Amino acid sequence: MPRRTMVEAIRDALDVMMGRDSRVVVFGEDVGYFGGVFRATEGLQRKYGTSRCFDAPISEGGIIGVAVGMGAYGLRPVAEIQFADYMYPGYDQIVSEAARLRYRSAGEFTAPMVVRMPCGGGIFGGQTHSQSPEALFTHVCGLKTVIPSNPHDAKGLLIAAIEDDDPVIFLEPKRVYNGPFNGHHDQPVVPWARHPLGETPDGHYTVPLGQAAVRREGTAVTVLAYGTMVHVAEAAAAETGVDAEIIDLRTLVPLDVEAIERSVRKTGRCVILHEATRTSGFGAELSAQVQERCFYHLEAPILRVTGWDTPYPHAQEWDYFPGPDRVGRALHAVLEA
Question: What is the pLDDT of residue 49?
């Protein structure tokens, strides 16, 4: 089975869907001739032409507005926002138009569109190229929110998102584009070519939206994570020796609450991990879900390990980034509570 980086897996998913369905179009800033700032769309314009893969002006509001119109009239657009940090000018279109179209038209129109956005830090991108805005989307009724942690899931989830009849926000943690990142910035990165989840089947397959994966089985504590933080959690469990069960959520909306509940009822403890800022981050929603459903099974308070409530710093990136040391301390704390 071929092994791909996450960039290659995303490109392959787009290629598969553009080949299967003439309604699928790909566009955004520099995605056509240039192939995207991370080369996720490289070669698609040459293969499918300028009417199927094309460059858009530097106008995020315009990109999202055009995608909504395309979806309403029968196409299946995949729009790229070059960095998730740039999506704010288009946020009104996402919330007021894309997410509400089915409801406000009483089902007459839908917006079967995907918005791809590289997100997260760990690349010294500073405050305007490192944000993790997933909670802003999970708060909006009518949107689905996806964050893969590996190439296999990235391809399957992206195909499922393109085939979905509602708008999907597809966030791509750019720190794991070329290999899993365990949070140790001073160690060599293992390439996806040497990782089992780098294996991505050729052709069409899907990973269902709303279905979490158990990345590591354990009995002592449940760790809920997604994106880059899945690999950080695995490193922390290995380094501390804690028998942690690590749940890769994969999609935040729809959320696989049953998988979360099943794990926490087994372990009796829960640590929640995400890179985004702490206050009102998605971890707060996860904590509420666990408390409501598993209160009588909890042996200790739920703990969160997150980014800080500051802009993403450049010079102190690794003090902000939730690394394995911080996660390891949380694992020990929840066991000792």
Answer: 98
How do residues 215-228 score in pLDDT, each as one tens digit?
999 999 999 999 99
> Is the four-CA dihedral 180, 160, 27, 43 of positive or negative sign?
positive
Task: State the pLDDT at residue 175.
Answer: 96
Mean pLDDT of 278-305: 98
Name the residue type at position 88: Y
Q: How many residues does the chain have?
A: 337
Is the pTM above the cut of 0.85?
Answer: yes
Helices 6-20 and 151-163 pack at an angle, to 10 degrees, of 30
Q: Largest Cα–Cα distance in the chain?
A: 60
Q: Averaged over 146-156, what is the pLDDT?
A: 98
Catalytic residue IDs: 129
Structure tokens given for 248:
């890769």
CA separation for the pair 61, 3 (Å, rounded): 36
pLDDT at 315 over 90: no
Three-state DSSP string of the chain:
CCECCHHHHHHHHHHHHHHHCCCEEEEECCCCCCCCCCCCCCCHHHHHCCCCEEECCCCHHHHHHHHHHHHHCCCEEEEECCCHHHCHHHHHHHHHHHCCHHHHCCCCCCCCCEEEEEECCCCCCCCCCCCCCHHHHHCCCCCEEECCCCHHHHHHHHHHHHHCCCCEEEEEEHHHCCCCCCCCCCCCCCCHHHCHHHECCCCCCCCCCCCCEEEECCCCEEEEECCHHHHHHHHHHHHHCCCEEEEECCEEECCCHHHHHHHHHHHCCEEEEEEEECCCCHHHHHHHHHHHHHHHHCCCCCEEEEECCCCCCCCCHHHHCCCHHHHHHHHHHHHHC
Residue whose C-alpha is closest to residue 115's, from 174, 182, 184, 66: 66
Task: Work out the pLDDT band at 314, boundaries 50, 70, 90.
Answer: confident
